[in-house]
Automatic annotation (TrEMBL):
InterPro entries: Arg_succ_lyase_C, Argininosuccinate_lyase, Fumarase/histidase_N, Fumarate_lyase_CS, Fumarate_lyase_fam, Fumarate_lyase_N, L-Aspartase-like. It is an enzyme of class 4 (lyase). It holds the Pfam family Lyase_1. It comes from Quillaja saponaria. SUPFAM superfamilies: L-aspartase-like. Its EC number is 4.3.2.1. Residues 366-433 form the Argininosuccinate lyase C-terminal domain. This is argininosuccinate lyase. Transmembrane segments: none annotated. Keywords: Amino-acid biosynthesis, Arginine biosynthesis, Lyase. Pathway: Amino-acid biosynthesis; L-arginine biosynthesis; L-arginine from L-ornithine and carbamoyl phosphate: step 3/3. GO terms for molecular function: argininosuccinate lyase activity. One of its GO terms (biological process) is L-arginine biosynthetic process via ornithine.
Length: 460
């Protein structure tokens, strides 16, 4: 009971175990800045509305400023018996300035307070993540610019399919990241509404101005429905869903780079600065950062699943369960930020092994589909072309050679339509040069894509 802001109706204090179990200060102190920001806006509004005096307001604002300084200097003592960040700050303010502090919680509940803090925090976090995304996009485009003209095998089913420009391959990730950023922008716009003034759940009979606080805090408008305001967590579900999709994209990138760094592929060599060794095998140089990018995607997905599960059975309005919403969000933001940062670092520290890739390129008949297009241009129906090229590939397999190694007699024995000009379509390089559809891997199309990103991302 001693020192509790809600102690009035209680005769006994909570047990130590309950106190330890129910506290959130150990993690929600992360919200201190937003909490002070919200209290400032609330105090100013209370004074404007004549609910507190101008001098009380000034005392509150000065006290809050002092508390913020104290926290930032590391001098603030966070007390578990004061439960959470809201009551720690309010009680410290009371210790510091006395009576006026007791008016700050007028027409406010921790239920609307915590959501105001949390929405403000998520808004900032989204802005930070979007910056990380942009940086990774720039790093991928930079890697693409360093490797002009490099052709790599394109895969489907992880089997060799068609030749593509490395730039094209990398820009596919840049596109995905752009949509990832777009999802966060959408989420930010949807979450940027103000719960403050919803109070416990029903609003208040006191003459507050919710539009004033909403404005002061940079929200679009106050939330329309006070019950919704304190019950809703779909803004965090949406945020963590967006993070999970980013995590999946990065995990795929990680998997690919881990494969490409293997002896079997040998497409890339990560620099020592992004590799780690083995405690037993002296020769090892491992692409651990990207393995962990792949691995940590599990945490980000887990955080989302935790929140979905947390919310699924809750009646309106606030329930204490909802205190569990914070750690998964903090973890998701920290994890996804690290994943983005390390992926960018990796992109800037890998070398594409041009010679190795070029040497490996003739295998796998990457030009077979281009050869079928050649026959279509000669007037052969595609299905027939497919069959002719299939039989040509079978001949290659039996002779252990590539399509371009077949002479015109051999090709003509399969179909008379083959002519000398067929060799302009064969080989990975010729094949790549034949692509011309919008968005394809043809060099002109890829150059257009690259120009688009260089200017959009403002890469000098
Ligand atoms: N620490 C709480 C949370 O994070 C704040 C709201 C508590 N409200 C209450 N009535 N117990 O959800």
């Amino acid at each position: 009971k001693e020192g509790k802001l809600w102690g009035g109706r209680f005769e006994e204090s909570v047990t130590d175990a309950v106190e330890r179990f129910t506290e959130s200060i150990s993690f929600d102190k992360e919200l201190y800045k937003q909490d002070i920001m919200g209290s400032r806006a609330h105090a100013i509004m209370l004074a404007e509305q004549g609910l507190i005096s101008g001098s009380d307001k000034n005392n509150i604002l000065q006290g809050l400023e002092e508390i913020e300084r104290c926290i930032e200097n590391g001098d603030f003592i966070w007390r578990t018996d004061r439960e959470d960040v809201h009551m720690n700050i309010e009680a410290a303010l009371t210790d510091m300035i006395g009576e006026p502090a007791k008016k700050l919680h007028t027409a406010r509940s921790r239920n609307d307070q915590v959501l105001t803090d949390f929405r403000l925090w998520c808004r900032d976090a989204i802005d930070r993540i979007i910056k990380h995304i942009k940086h990774l996009q720039v790093s991928l485009v930079t890697l693409a610019l360093k490797n002009e003209g490099l052709i790599v095998p394109g895969y489907t089913h992880l089997q060799r399919a068609q030749p593509v420009l490395l730039q094209h391959h990398l820009l596919a990730y840049v596109e995905q990241l752009e949509r990832d950023a777009g999802r966060l922008v959408d989420c930010r716009a949807r979450l940027n509404f103000c719960p403050l003034g919803a109070c416990a759940l029903a609003g208040t009979g006191l003459p507050i101005d919710r539009f004033m606080t909403s404005n002061a805090l940079g929200f679009t408008a106050p939330l329309r429905n006070s019950i919704d305001a304190v019950s809703d967590r779909d803004f965090v579900l949406e945020f963590l869903s967006a993070n999970s999709i980013i995590a999946i994209h990065l995990s795929r990138l990680g998997e690919e780079w881990v494969l490409w760094a293997s002896e079997e592929f040998g497409f890339i060599t990560p620099s020592d600065s992004v590799s780690t060794g083995s405690s037993i095998m002296p020769q090892k140089k491992n692409p651990d950062p990207m393995e962990l990018v792949r691995g940590k995607s599990a945490r980000v997905i887990g955080d989302l699943v935790t929140l979905l599960t947390l919310c699924k059975g809750l009646p309106h309005a606030y329930n204490r369960d909802l205190q569990e919403d914070k750690e998964p969000v903090f973890d998701s933001v920290k994890t996804i930020s690290g994943m983005l940062e390390v992926s960018a670092e990796f992109a800037l520290n890998i070398t594409l092994n041009r010679r190795r890739i070029e040497k490996a390129l003739p295998a796998g008949h990457l030009d077979a589909t281009t050869l079928a297009d050649y026959l279509v241009k000669k007037g052969i129906p595609f299905r027939t072309s497919h069959d002719i090229v299939g039989r040509s590939v079978a001949l290659c397999v039996s002779k252990n050679c590539q399509l371009q190694d077949l002479n015109l007699d051999e090709l003509s024995s399969i179909a008379t339509v083959f002519d000398e000009d067929v060799y302009e379509f064969l080989g990975a390089e010729n094949a790549v040069n034949k692509f011309c559809s919008y968005g394809s891997t043809g060099s002109a199309c890829v150059a257009n894509q690259l120009n688009y990103w260089v200017s959009k991302l403002e890469i000098n």
